[in-house]
Design brief:
- By secondary structure, the chain is an alpha/beta fold.
- Helix content is 51%, strand content 12%.
- It has helices at 8-70, 115-119, 122-126, 153-166, 179-190, 211-216, 224-231, 234-249, 256-261, 264-267, 270-290, 318-324, 340-343, 345-356; strands spanning 84-88, 91-98, 103-107, 131-135, 173-177, 197-201, 301-306, 329-333.
- An eight-stranded mixed β-sheet has the order 1-2-4-3-5-6-7-8, sandwiched between helices.
- A hairpin with a 2-residue loop joins β1 (84-88) and β2 (91-98).
- α4 (153-166) packs across α5 and α5 (179-190) crosses α11.
Length: 359
């Protein structure tokens, strides 16, 4: 092999080719740099514009909230109680009475009131064949919640017993929804009153963690809760209550008749908000004390729940309760949320009729 020795002409051609390639690369890099600069500048402009729009929207929203809070309060809607009052130990308890026949007692959940059963149509439907008694629990609707007493589930069950005693109600079927199922179970476990049976809707039956209860429980602290509620304008409280309705009805929409008839001003009142927070704070303690007595229940028990309930997981509560109470029946309602007495009222009626037919 001989060593490679290119001629002068060849070396000159190579140098020219390298120079030409270098110029092309430089121009390409410059062009790419300019394009990248333009792209970056455009991105910065787009970001500034989007940020400005976001800030403007946030400012407008804040202004609306502040204006609503500072605006003169709307004149309160004056609603007359649709039922009557039964006084127990000096406490007037509001009770809706309809129909004739064998008695059916309706016990509402947390945050609502007896009128809820009228709005969904259950009271009128049942009143065609039964004597219907729907009670406002302490602090809800038109029933006060005296501070000198701790309103545990057992205390509320005792109050319900005393009301039924004064109304001369014998062997009722008790229908409880949500927190009302705990009161219903406490009444049955107490054994003080003979019951025809229980129909339990969307209930929490065992201790566990619920986000909604954990968030609102601090408002049950005496003094602190009162101060916090007093600082919130009535319009804001009403807006928060209406927002909670969307959550409890999900995945169904809030029914138009509920929007039109539900007394938001009562649900957002400080007394009812205190009752809501106190019941939420005491829920785990209530079911902890009751769960060991479920297996001893011998009356007919029908359990219904929506399998899409965003408030209470049916598998952890309704299914488990069914396996705990001998002879109980369970019906899971596909695609339904927490308010099954709206989305499946006819199925609730059939469950009531079925238990009534047993005894």
């Amino acid at each position: 092999m001989f060593p490679f020795d290119p001629s002068r002409q060849v070396r000159r051609l190579v140098r020219r080719s390298l120079a030409r390639t270098t110029r092309q690369v430089t121009r390409s890099v410059d062009a790419a740099g300019k394009a990248m600069t333009r792209s970056a500048e455009q991105a910065i402009r787009d970001t500034r514009k989007a940020t400005a729009q976001t800030v403007k929207r946030a400012v407008r929203h804040t202004e609306k909230v502040v204006a609503a809070a500072r605006a003169p309060q709307r004149s309160e809607v004056v609603r007359k109680p649709s039922g009557q009052f039964v006084t127990v130990d000096g406490l007037p308890v509001h009770v809706i009475l309809r129909g004739r026949g064998r008695p059916v007692v309706l016990v509402h959940g947390n945050g609502t009131l007896a009128e809820d059963f009228a709005i969904c149509g259950l009271i009128d439907r049942l009143a065609t064949r039964y004597r219907v008694i729907a009670i406002d629990r302490p602090g809800f609707g038109y029933t006060a919640r005296p501070r000198h007493r701790i309103w545990t589930a057992q205390a509320q069950a005792m109050l319900l017993h005393r009301v039924l005693e004064q109304l001369k109600v014998e062997r009722p079927l008790v229908v409880g929804h949500s927190w009302g199922t705990i009161v219903s179970l406490a009444l049955a476990a107490d054994g003080r009153r003979a019951l025809r049976g229980l129909v339990l809707l969307s209930g929490s039956y065992f201790p566990g963690h619920r986000t909604d209860a954990a968030l609102i429980a601090p408002l049950a602290v005496p003094g602190l809760g009162d101060a916090a509620r007093a600082m919130v304008p009535a319009t804001v409280s009403a807006a928060l209550v209406e927002q909670s309705f969307r959550h409890v009805f999900w995945p169904q929409a809030v029914p138009p008749r509920f929007k039109a008839r539900f007394p938001v001003e009562i649900a957002a009142a400080p007394t009812q908000l205190r009752a809501v927070s106190e019941d939420a704070a005491s829920m785990n303690a209530a079911v902890t004390g009751l769960q060991h007595r479920y297996a001893g229940l011998t009356l007919p028990v029908s359990i219904l729940a929506g399998d899409a309930d965003a408030i209470v997981k049916a598998g952890e509560h309704s299914v488990r309760l069914h396996t705990t109470i001998p002879g109980s029946t369970l019906r899971l309602l596909p695609g339904l949320g927490h308010m099954i007495h709206y989305g499946a009222r006819l199925k609730v009626e059939r469950a009531i009729d079925a238990v009534m037919g047993l005894r």
